[in-house]
Amino acid sequence: MICGALAALPTCWTAVPFEMANRAYYADKTWPLEYRRNYKSPLNALIRIPFEEGPSYLFKGTLPIVYRDLIFFSYLFSIYAWLKNKLFFFWVYNDFSYNHMKFLMLSFTWVSATFASYPAFFA
Hints:
Number of helices: 6
Number of strands: 0
Helix content: over 70%
Radius of gyration: 19 Å
Distance between the termini: 23 Å
Shape: elongated
Mean pLDDT: 86
Order of helices and strands: HHHHHH
Number of domains: 1
Strand content: under 5%
Structural class: mainly alpha
Largest sheet: none
């Protein structure tokens, strides 16, 4: 679990600016006309926000997002590595395709990591 958390640390914060720009774009549509920034798309918001609001605006109040992604990726990496070590005999000693087994392991790991990080999504 520690190795999974260490592998997740560089990835858990990378989605934060994109998600904040997406939230700013959709929030801009709900504001009164005099307060709107008139973003054309989430990408337009991502490009304009660092110049208009400052780069720190993209990371404001994002601890739940980082927490959710840290749980998701650490669980994903840890469980996948564990499954790969425990189920190696399927493709080494049996005639199962490695790509098929990898697809099954990643599918199970992705779904279980989503369920594990779901409560942090609504924190």
